[in-house]
Specification:
heterodimer, A: 245 residues, alpha/beta, Spore Coat Polysaccharide Biosynthesis Protein SpsA, Chain A, seven-stranded mixed beta sheet, 8 helices, 7 strands
């Protein structure tokens, strides 16, 4: 019987990540024996695809940049076509510790969608101002929609079980912030069980999140708009499982 | 109204309609995109030929200055066309995205098949 890791596909959306993608893929393979790693090169202009392939990952090359949503949908469709049960999204910038995947996949036994949330109160990840308000507002609303307490709703470190993979292969949103906020709403309304577990996160390898007040305010506005539209859209159901021989 | 302005109005409407119909004929414009332009051109032609219809229509809806009705209808038509274009653009973007994903997935299948072929037939 294959272990759950053998039925798990790590999907790594990568846009111009040639510096970090190789080491992250190597770390995935060393920490997660038996797992398959798919790097989705989201229209990069550098050698992201070559670096990932040399590290031993399967590489899907998008002809142009689609954003995280489009890249992830390639991952979900690939998982569906190749018989993977679970999909775990891991960022190519090294922010997510591949070691955390094991606990995410374990939590999938009793849930359809598992969010890896940054440790509350731990580490150097602090936000303030409008960006903080956005996170508070989002987690309040999304906790109610998902019927479970969520604190880190914009976390990209998440695992999807078989039902969520079928749902997302068809309905993963491509808009800005859609991959995090709207996908949660879609899953919750399709009656997927969502849980959040704490995971340790590392600081990003390159670049820091913007703390410029205007940009943060724009982020708050777009996040609220994404949430409102996600909530007023008609809900979709999980597609039936295809019977394969 | 002078004869010159009457003729000018009718000719402008005919020109608009002519351009739209000619583009339809050469398949440079699809029917569903041309609907609003045809409606606008036809209205302009009717008002150009029978200016009294404009006064009648303005009275009917209670617009004091008939010219304002022209402006209102023009803006309304432009608005509808813009909305239609935005919606078509959204649909096209969604299709492009799906195609890009499919192309990436198929490229992977081709690469895997080529590798398999190389392995079995040296």
């Amino acid at each position: 019987m294959p272990t759950s890791l053998e039925k798990t596909l790590i999907v790594m959306p990568a846009f111009n990540e040639e510096e970090s993608v190789r080491s992250v893929v190597l770390e995935v393979y060393s920490k997660l024996p038996g797992v398959t790693c798919l790097v989705v090169d989201d229209g990069s202009h550098d050698s992201t695809a070559e670096e990932a392939a040399e590290a031993g990952a399967i590489v899907a090359k998008l002809p142009f940049n689609l954003g995280v949503g489009g890249a992830m949908r390639v991952g979900f469709r690939f998982a569906l076509n190749h018989g993977f049960d679970n999909v775990v999204q891991v960022d190519a910038d090294g922010q997510h510790d591949p070691g955390g995947v094991i606990s995410l996949v374990q939590a999938l036994e009793s849930a359809d969608l598992v969010l890896g949330a940054r440790f509350a109160g731990e580490g150097d990840y602090t936000v303030k101002g409008p960006r903080r308000w956005a996170m508070v507002v989002l987690s309040k609303f999304l906790s109610r929609t998902a019927r479970t307490p969520l604190t880190d709703t914009t976390s990209g470190f998440r695992a999807s079980g078989p039902r969520a993979v079928r749902l997302f292969a068809e309905h993963y949103p491509a808009e800005y912030l859609g991959d995090t906020i709207e996908s949660l709403v879609i899953a919750a309304r399709a009656r997927c069980v969502i849980v959040q577990i704490p995971v340790a996160m590392r600081p990003r390898a390159g670049g820091v999140p913007s703390h410029h007040p205007l940009k943060a305010a724009a982020y708050l506005g777009r996040a609220c708009m994404a949430l409102v539209f996600a909530l007023v859209r008609p809900p979709v159901a999980v597609p039936e499982a295809r019977i394969t021989a | 109204m002078s004869v010159a302005s009457y003729v000018f109005g009718v000719l402008s409407a005919l020109l608009t309609l002519g351009v739209v119909i000619e583009m339809l004929r050469r398949r440079r414009l699809r029917e569903r995109h041309a609907v609003w332009w045809l409606v606008a051109g036809t209205l302009a032609l009717i008002i150009g030929i029978f200016p009294s219809t404009l006064v009648w229509a303005a009275n009917l809806v209670g617009v004091v200055v008939p010219l304002n009705l022209v402006f209102f209808v023009s803006v309304a038509v432009l608005f509808l066309v813009c909305i239609q274009h935005s919606s078509e653009l959204t649909a096209l973007e969604a299709k492009t995205q799906t195609l890009a994903e499919t192309s990436a997935l198929q490229e992977m299948r081709i690469a895997a098949l080529e590798a398999e072929l190389k392995r079995t037939k040296p």
